[in-house]
Amino acid sequence: MIINIIQSMILIIAAPLFSGILKRIKAILRGYEGAPVLQPYFDIKKLLSKERVISKSSSFITTVGPIIILSAAILSAFLTPVFFTAGNELIGNMFILIFILSIIKFFNTLIGLDCACTFGGMGSSREMFIYMFAEPVVFLILAFVYFETKSFNIYKIAKLNAVRTDISSAHIVAAIAFLIWLIAENARMPVDNPETHLELTMVHEAMILDISGRDLAYIELASAIKLAIFLTIFINIFLPFGMAVSLSAAALIKAVILYLIKMLVFLLIIAIVEISIAKFRLFRVPELIAASFSFAIAAISMMYFS
Amino acid sequence: MLEILSAVILISAIIMSSLRRVNLLIRGFSVQSLAISLVCFTLGFKTGEVHYYIIGALTLLVKTLIIPIVASKSVRELKINREMKLIIDGYWSSILTALSIATTYVFLDNFNNDFVKAGFVLMVLGGIILIGRKKAISQMIGFLVMENGLVLFEISMIKMTLIIEILIILEVLMLSVIMGVMVFYINKAFDTVNTDYLSNIKE
């Protein structure tokens, strides 16, 4: 029990580090030095010391929204295994996890609409457009995971998949579907450019455009935690080999090292994807997500009719 | 190993069914053929039969090397190397792919072999690529994907004689060469390879 709390605390504390590493990898691949990997911590520290500036025409949503977003992100971190799972926890239902993570998206959208800035409304409408196509895919992937392991509990899924030795082809196809969904949900490159502030292309940044000071720090921290959680869920569902299932020191050290290696590999993959392809036109994003849908259906039918 | 290869085959087929750039279609086809020839080599290594090796070597030579080179040579002559107006666009093509894969797996429920099902899926997806595109060269790729499905189907299910297999591969090679030449001349005559313009010949 106590180890679950400790691993989730480590995940929350390390989340800005992962986004710093991602930025650094992208900078190195593009051929320049880049900010130090601890830069997100400095940014959050700087923003936390500023006062909050709230527009006069905004309602209570902007006041409470960033806190709710941060608390939803932190709560979902406590519902995921990171490098240890015993398999008999009562928490960790995948549906609860997915819906808590969609609270973040919902309040982002409301904040975008709240102060009647045109960019915010545009960003919210685009975000909901993408979300509408992306949401069914994750339920198909959950159905696949249920057919594979007969469980919706992520701790149990991670344990069952960690001791599994044979890997089926449906598993790989579903992993690809989940990866596309992860990229769409976290506003990464083919769907949305996380670095831009150009009004024609931004989706996620447009919604938080008029948030400043401490609130911005909360939202930045929440989106870093969200990316780390999604990658952790991916690793724990589809690649959990080497995860610690017993509380011995050797297993825990091996699990932590393997977790870091897997995380770095996936950050590298995301960085390579981000620097090598351009952002899609908004109306071609459904094609990408439809491909993910197609992968998910293929995985389910391969699992179910075999 | 075989599981990873069959996943690669299916993933490449699903991605190809929604692509609109001809270069990427050709690259996806060559990746798929490489996976199929590796399947042949693995099966040959497991069973120790020689004809798997021969099919694998022929697939590797013809479909991974010669056909992509011929096809990309004729793509280089084109002015527009992507499909502009698809008959079935990318989104609906993916949905159709998903539905047809599910239907195939339902119908082939009794076969306990991954590659039979993957072969049927490739045939159906090749059909979708074939009917959804307008450019002659991507229709050719659709036909070749169907043929890949046939190869996969027969190495796992029926024991065709080697002669027929070699004849099929030879036929595909001839088809691709003829298509390459034809695409070049269609392009020269009409300034496009859109097959809609072929009806202008009637006058």
UniProtKB/TrEMBL annotation, chain A:
InterPro entries: ComplexI_Subunit1, NADH_UbQ_OxRdtase_su1/FPO. The keyword Zinc does not apply. It is a multi-pass membrane protein. Signal peptide: none annotated. The chain crosses the membrane at residues 6-22, 60-84, 90-107, 128-147, 167-184, 216-239, 251-273, 285-305. It is found in: Membrane. It holds the Pfam family NADHdh. GO terms for cellular component: plasma membrane. Keywords: Membrane, Transmembrane, Transmembrane helix. The keyword Transmembrane helix applies. This is Hydrogenase. It comes from Fervidicella metallireducens AeB.
From TrEMBL, chain B:
The keyword Cell membrane applies. It is found in: Cell membrane. The chain crosses the membrane at residues 24-45, 51-71, 91-108, 114-132, 162-186. It is a multi-pass membrane protein. It comes from the Bacteria. One of its GO terms (cellular component) is plasma membrane. Its main location: membrane. Keywords: Cell membrane, Membrane, Transmembrane, Transmembrane helix. PANTHER family: HYDROGENASE-4 COMPONENT E (PTHR38601). This is Hydrogenase.
